Amino acid sequence: MAQIDLLSKLNKTGSGVDLKELATSLVEASISVPKQTAQDRLDKTEVSISAIGTVRSQLLSVQSSLSAIAANDVLSVRSSSGTVGTKVTDRNALAMGETTVGVLQVAKSQVLEFTGFSSKTATLPAGKVTLDFGAWYTPEGATEESFAVKPGTQTLTLNVSEGTTLETFARQIDALYGLTAAVLDKGDGTFSLGVLTQPGAGNAIRLTVEETTPGSGLARFDTTTTNSTVQAQAAQNAVVTVNGIQIFRETNTLTDVVPGMELTISQPGTSTRLTVSRDQEIARTNLMTLVEKVNAAQAMLTKMTARETEDEEAGDLAGNAGLQGLKRQLDSLIRRPIAGYGDKPVYLTELGLRTQQDGSLTLNAKAFEKAFADNPSAFDAVFSNRLTADDEGVSVVGVSTRKMTPGVFSFQRNPATAEATMGDTTFSGVDMGDGRTFFTAAAGEFSGLILKVDDEVASARISYGKSFLTLLDEVISSATANSGTLDMMRNTVTAEATDAQKTLTELDTRAESLKTMYAQRFGAMEAAVTRFNSTSSYLDSLVAQWNKNE
């Protein structure tokens, strides 16, 4: 281009045409339309990628709200005092109403103290110390204690070498399961060895010593006849009453006293009321939050996919099939019956939720209050998954999988084969020797479930319900997951952007090629015109000279 530009400006005998401008115009005319088309495509992909990010952010915000709603459980457990702590372990096993728990005695560990040592590094003579676990008791009419070994426990043996320090001996004991030991500075110039067992009357210990050299002094740790003299605290069980029925446990954490609940007791001589109920105001708050978030997501999807009309511009993802499919999923989910929460499925409309003409949700206060008063457990269909059996002799202790379809299933036991069936799945049974059988499925939609079934139970109905929160969470997770709907949309748009950018690059390359071609052709043309004009000027001069000479 520089060549033809120079010729155009300096050569006074040339064509007189601005060849640079002409070449530029020709190149622009050749590529301007396809280049603008490619640029428009690229600009549109940038808008689409930004819009997909907005959709993802909105959906993740909804998902975060679902977690907050689930944590704000409608089903609550209240304790009338702080002396009995509660923790829900299986909300499906909780029974509505009150339970009175009286604490008569808390479980305690046995504490032994061996006193009179001069230092932590005081040395011990050689010998063997045998430890047995069990219970100390005084037989009726006797004055001395006896020890009963706890069935199923092992006798433990410690070998003490000559010169072993008191601190090393403490570490040997501390390494044994169920025992804690340490050397303590009494503050009066002496040291004591303290030994602590696990709580429970049956977890006390008896130490039997065999000295390598009789009379060497290791026998001071023998408690076969001196337990009471070295015992700082006796081991004991927890004693509680549950609705007036007295029970005993080895620990202060009670996991099998109130169904679905773990209790922690701390203060003897107290009585506590535990109330299990569903809170209407929590249900109302959760539903209103859910309505707000679902409506926001629906409105966003509607706006993003809207096509252009006379009154409104097209959305950034107008007509996008992926988002339209996601919106249809949400619409369907709102109207779909929720199975597994009783003999009949639950509809959101039955709980006071209404769908407006534009597809948005509202909460009808009167309908909600009536539904909650009539059947508060129906609201579990919105907030909580359910996996329960209709027979108290059957406990569901496993976990459901995504393969499991919500509904009510018939569990049938075959006493002759030690197997059971539920639907098309066969469960294998293992006799636990305590009047119960564990049933598990190795494959199929019920794999992962473990059913504890009392021996006298032949059949039961197992209910499995996925809550609206869970179903909505699954829809959002599917859309936002790696290789999910949004990822596939972004990949498609990214590919379009790459293709548009490639087209622009190719057009720029073509423009440079055209410029080079025009430079060559116009340069040759300008040279030819110059030669022609030079010859013409020469002939004109020659003719003029001839005419003059005549």
TrEMBL record:
Keyword flag RNA-binding: no
Quaternary context: Homopentamer.
GO biological-process terms attached to the record: bacterial-type flagellum-dependent cell motility; cell adhesion
The protein's name in its UniProt record: Flagellar hook-associated protein 2
InterPro entries assigned: FliD (IPR040026), FliD_C (IPR010809), FliD_N (IPR003481)
One term under GO cellular component: extracellular region
Task performed by this protein: Required for morphogenesis and for the elongation of the flagellar filament by facilitating polymerization of the flagellin monomers at the tip of growing filament. Forms a capping structure, which prevents flagellin subunits (transported through the central channel of the flagellum) from leaking out without polymerization at the distal end.
Domain Flagellar hook-associated protein 2 C-terminal residues, every copy: 235-533
Statement: the UniProt record of this protein carries the keyword Ribonucleoprotein: no
Subcellular location: Secreted; Bacterial flagellum
Predominant location category: secreted
Origin superkingdom: Bacteria
Domain spans labelled Flagellar hook-associated protein 2 N-terminal: 15-110
Organism: Gemmobacter lanyuensis
